[in-house]
Design a protein that fits this description.
Blueprint lengths: L4 E6 L5 H13 L4 E6 L7 H9 L22 E6 L13 E6 L9 H25 L10 E8 L2 H12 L5 E2 L3 E6 L4 E7 L13 E4 L3 H14 L3 E8 L5 E7 L5 E7 L2 H4 L9 E2 L4
Parallel strand pairs: 1-2, 1-3, 3-4, 5-8, 9-12
Antiparallel strand pairs: 5-9, 6-7, 7-8, 10-11, 10-13, 11-12
């Protein structure tokens, strides 16, 4: 997701969009122009200024502004924060995100309670900004042809019945311990694994994964993951035991194992070594 000029909109440009503007400026720095505005601007709410000061942000430069003061030609991302039906409509072709949030201005509450609502709103906006920051200028994405996922279930038969209905496809194969669905329409390989208390290794299908077209794509994924700083659990290699695959194992930020794989062609299969040991596809 690429952007250089970011605008936050709500009705009064008093609380939500002011919090977002200040937090985004701190998070993105001078590399991104950050603005906020509203269709009926009023003031910077004193509690918005107060909760910003609590996290080390000086609110002195914030001003409530009308959205017609924005120069729309340079805007390349618009974020709507209001939950009201009258949210401002900016005449811009820029992509839009809808972060609908309730107005924290709650005069019906005590001062302490209202201040906590403002803190919660500030923190929620900052957490959304953290995701936006992580997506900005991200590495070039893969182009998968299939997504593999698996869940553990206490009743394999009942779950097989449910997911046959949900996915609209009968299982491709099953044993007493797992049921595998392959949905070309969803480009999904989905596996049910019986939850019998036994520890499952990723080789038992208990993992996430994406399929790529061929060996070259798996090798390219290895180099792109390394360049992006993503943890490589097992480097790109060809495995011959069980279902032969070109595969790369990564760990996501939560430690979940993710298999990036490609099925072998007939020509690939002719390279199978007698000892069936993995063939590494990249050098250290």
């Amino acid at each position: 997701m690429q952007f250089q000029n970011l605008v936050f909109l709500c009705v009064a440009n008093s609380a939500r969009s002011q919090l977002a503007e200040a937090l985004a400026r701190r998070r993105f720095g001078p590399g991104v122009t950050v603005q906020s505005a509203g269709s009926a601007p009023s003031r910077v709410h004193p509690m918005a200024a107060r909760v910003l000061a609590e996290v080390g942000i000086d609110p002195a430069s914030l001003r409530s502004k009308h959205d017609d003061t924005l120069y729309t030609d340079d805007i390349d991302l618009v974020v709507h924060l209001c939950a009201e039906a009258q949210c401002p409509v900016l005449l811009s072709s820029a992509p839009r995100l809808n972060w609908s949030m309730a107005d924290p201005d709650r005069p019906d509450l005590s001062e302490d309670a209202q201040l906590q609502v403002f803190r919660d709103t500030r923190d929620a906006i900052d957490q959304r900004l953290a995701v936006l920051e992580a997506l900005r200028d991200g590495p070039e994405p893969l182009v998968p042809t299939e997504f593999h996922a698996s869940v553990r279930v206490p009743d394999l038969a009942a779950s097989a019945r449910f997911y046959t209905w949900l996915l609209g496809v009968a299982p491709k194969v099953w044993t007493h311990r797992y049921v595998t669905f392959v949905s070309p329409a969803l480009r999904t390989n989905f596996v049910l694994l019986v939850d019998d208390g036994k520890v499952l290794h990723q080789d038992t299908l208990y993992h996430l994964g994406v399929e790529l077209p061929d060996r070259a794509a798996v090798i390219a994924a290895h180099h792109r993951a390394a360049a992006a700083g993503f943890p490589i659990h097992k480097p790109a290699r060809t495995t011959w035991r069980g279902t032969p695959l070109h595969e790369l194992w990564l760990k996501d930020p939560g430690g979940n194992l993710v298999e990036v794989y490609a099925r072998l062609t007939d020509a690939d299969l002719t390279e199978c070594p007698d000892n069936l040991e993995p063939s590494f596809l990249v050098t250290a």
